[in-house]
Write the structure tokens for this entry.
Amino acid sequence: MSDRAYVAERILPDEEPPAASIGFVGWLRANLFDGFWNSMLTVAAALILIRFVPPLVDWLFLDAVWGDAPPDACREAAGACWAVIWEKHRLILFGRYPYQEHWRPVLGMAILITLVGFSCNRANWRAWLVGAWALGLAAFFALMWGGFFGLTFVPNVLWGGLPLTLLLAIIGIVVAFPVSMLLALGRRSHMPVIRAICVCYIELIRGVPLISLLFMASFMLPLFMPTGVNIDAMLRAQIAIIMFSSAYLAEVIRGGLQAIPRGQFEAAEAIGLGYWKMQRLVILPQAIRLVIPPIVNTFIGLFKDTSLVAIVSLTDLLLATRQAVSDPLWRAYFVEGYIFIAIIYFCFCYFMSKYSQYLERQFYTGQTRN
Amino acid sequence: MRSDGPSRGGFVQPAAVQPPRRVPLWRNPTARAVAFQAVAIAVLLVLAVYLVSTTIANLEQRGIRSGFDFLENEAGFRIGETLIPYSPSDSYARAFLVGLLNTIHVSALGIVLATIIGILVGIARLSRNWLIARLASAFVETVRNIPLLLQLFFWYAAITGLLPAVRDAVAVLPGIYLSKSGLMFPVVKLGNAFPFVAIALLLGIVAAFAFRTWAKRRQDRTGERTPVLLVGTGLIVGFPIVAWLVSGAPLELDVPEKGRFTYSGGSSVTPEFLALLLGLTIYTSGFIAEIVRSGILAVPWGQTEAARALGLRQGRILRLVVLPQALRVIVPPLTSQYLNLTKNSSLAVAIGYPDLVSVANTSLNQTGQAIECISIMMAIYLTLSLSTSAFMNWYNRRVALVER
């Protein structure tokens, strides 16, 4: 048999794929020059990038004035004036908090950020985490207020900058969370009066802009209080933020409750659990787990929305920056100031949105289709 | 094996069954629900009475009047830009109306622009073109992760601080000038032909819709396709042109003319309006892009494959198969983005554009009647929101999948 001429005696090596379909060239062809229109798009986008990116890099980095420099140096330079950040970073980050005491907000923020980082790990989602948060917040307030162990007392009208932004956002969500659970349960209650109250509250708050709630808190709340009772501006803004975020969170949690199959309720009732035990042990743990990614997204929105307190004259990160760049010497360099805090906001929000996407992948494995 | 019945094991059940024990009232679910709700109502009432009484006391003590009578009084403040005639001698009610119209003006324009940009960016993020997809992602991530108020401050400061003064205005396009004082652009003046052209445009739109219905019926019956897009566009464009020609073809292009300190002619928008529109549009388009992207991704790949197997071309696959299904996912969150944009336009107060909140804020500071001013403002926003969500629910029911 083997002497037949047409039987191959050895296996030929595989042909290399065409040079144009592998390696860098292949990648280029597949991703950038895939057909005429795609190539045109790539060229157009590349032209735009070439036109705008190098001048931007020059302005941002190469021609910029870095470090400690007088405003005159900036006036002569062609690039960005990062000296304004060097000069004003304390004011931007801490507002009017006494200069010598800035280590206290730094330490307080470190505590809060550590706690947030710690809470990101799912292995730490235990009951003691609530205690850790209570302790951490207590430590934050103690540090910020002071008035003991030789720490001077700092009234909260002087709080400002990043610590205030973080505080408004974190307290906003921590306090709103239990409220929103009650609201979500109430909205699904069988009792018409309770349901009506919850629906009215949620729709009313969600139907109006946050700024109108902030106005309400700063102008109307004082009228509601009996004479002699005075709540300061920070607490009023905080109340508005809590009211606002609890309505939005309630809708998120309601979404989770609706996703729980009827069988879970029936099973819980069949083993004789009462309403609250059923919710606490069976329903809410499942519902909340389902909606943790959207809760993180709500928190991102809330974090950005805290900047609105600047309109009611609370010196948060945004208003502190505006005050910093209103200095006549540095007035021309507002862009640099805004870019600086935009980067701060971006870092926080981007981290949180990536975390929420990570959680989604962790939770919904096996439920995604190609 | 037979069961022995009740007498199994020699145990005999008592003949007389004991009457069921009455459930005590506090364990009766109905009674408890009634009691609970009564308590809730009572607590709310007590709270309301308390709030009203303290508020009345406070108002008297501070000498603030109450009631909505002030709406008839002379407002006395200027409003920078108005869509309807307004002067400081007009009433507060008219000032509120001016503010509301300004809110609607900027929101409507913002919604249109944000939808266009959002759809483009959302599709670009799904592009097979690596560069385009990356650029679109970078845009979306940047825009979504920076607070809107900061973006508004940035745009406003950039327009008023970085752009040249009026006399050195930059010509973006011929006839369109950008400067510290806003954007100036030419307008077409049709004179007395305007009402006819407007009516003709409406008629054209109606005719185009009627033609589309007719063409669809015809296609269902005979299978023949009619060039709907072409004829429809022709109708919508043609009708007004005919009307314009018939009424004598008056045409006057009002182009802004460069003066020493101001421009004359044309039309213009203020830097406040421009900054607000720019900020709202860019911020919302980032969110709309994500909605469009996830809507398109939500249509299973098999649908595209099946359409391809039927022999449909790429454009028709998108138009006839993917988009109608994607819209079902896209429309509800899109509507809530529109609502968000409208509510976010309230940030106008921070950069001095006279929207509803800004007018309410000024009236509040002048009259001191905080409760009334804030209530009016909230009631208007609430009406806008609730009517939009009513529309959205209606639409959702209409497009919802009809299942077995």
Summary: The first helix of chain A runs from residue 23 to 31.
